[in-house]
Amino acid sequence: MRILVFTAALFISYYTFAQDMEYPDSLPINKIQQIGSHNSYRKTPYKRVLNLVKLLNPFFPKLKAPYHQWQYSHLPLDSQFQNYGIRSIELDIYNDPQGGKFYKRQINAVCFAPRSSREPALLWPGMKMLHIADLDYNTNYFTLNHALHAIKKWSSEHPTHYPLLVMIETKDDAVGDHVKIAGFQKAIKFDINAYKDLVKEIEDVFADNPAQILRPDDVRGNEATLRDAVTKHGFPKLGDCRGKVAFIVMGGQREVNLITKEHPSFSGMPFFMFSGTDKPESAFVKLDDPKSNFEQIKAAVAQGFIVRTRADADTKEAQFRDYSSFQKAKESGAQMISTDFYKPFLKNGYVISREMLKK
After folding, report:
1. pLDDT in tens, 100-118
2. Does the N-terminal or the C-terminal CB of the chain have fewer CB atoms within 10 Å?
3. Per residue in 232-285, pLDDT tens?
4. Do 235 and 29 touch, CB atoms closer than 8 A?
5. Maximum distance among all alpha carbons in the chain?
6. Whole-model pTM above 0.90?
7. What are phi and psi of 91, to 5 degrees?
8. What gap in Å lies between CA 292 and CA 222, rounded to an integer?
9. What pLDDT does 6 receive?
10. 291-296: long-range contacts at Cβ-Cβ below 8 A with a sequence spacing of 24 or more?
């Protein structure tokens, strides 16, 4: 049995890299579709928390309850990259410059469980990684630093991979911002100092090989803006991007303006940000509903932008084995198609795989 499992894993790993290598180095990366994972760090909540949330089902419309929407869990990032061919991921971060803000989990007090996480990493200063503070906190990586090191390690060990597109959502909202009960934490807003801390975390992890990051400056080239670069020339060719990691921050236009005021088109920065197609700093565009945004996605792709959309959301498609959103995403040409189910949904086998892009 062990030999069989090892052989199967070896075959999957080989096949995954064969898919990376089948694209010619002369092809710009905005001409390639890939499957990505959504909330890629997240694990299913602890049983006591999940059982408590299940009690709320009668107060929500069908499939709108958190209990249904939380029925997915992700593997560590290296396993996603290696065994499932995932090439875009999404990481959620909370600002915690002093450390310790998320060391205790207030929901546990309601579940008659210890509030203390007993996780030393949550005491350290730096960005913390969790879905919803105090509530949906179970994760493969407690800090952004841990996740960045995992990405860096895998990428360095596999230098011919298609570039990893790492989305980072800066979370400005927490349970404590809405529930006025002692113990629930409010989010610390992302100001310019927080973004400087984010830059430092990224740059420090990649300090031994800064060229491993695909930067806005690499895409802009000699053009005045990122938009000019991608609409005139597209993105760099795959041969120039193999083994690289691109970071795309998921903030609103307020955050984009905050950064571009000092760094037009993100000059000198280690990350891009999602923005509208009419903005000078635009290179990556987020249009998450492939049905209602279908024509917008097609137009953005035709202009040269890289678009992120979703094959499924809140487990709705998975619950009904509904592949219609994935089909529209594929037909739209969106290059980053995110799913919660690159491995099959246990209830019915719903799954989105790289192989399905070719059918």
Report:
1. 999 999 888 888 788 888 9
2. N
3. 999 999 999 999 999 999 988 899 999 999 999 999 999 999 999 999 999 999
4. yes
5. 60
6. yes
7. -120, 130
8. 35
9. 44
10. 291/324, 291/325, 291/328, 293/332, 294/328, 294/331, 294/332
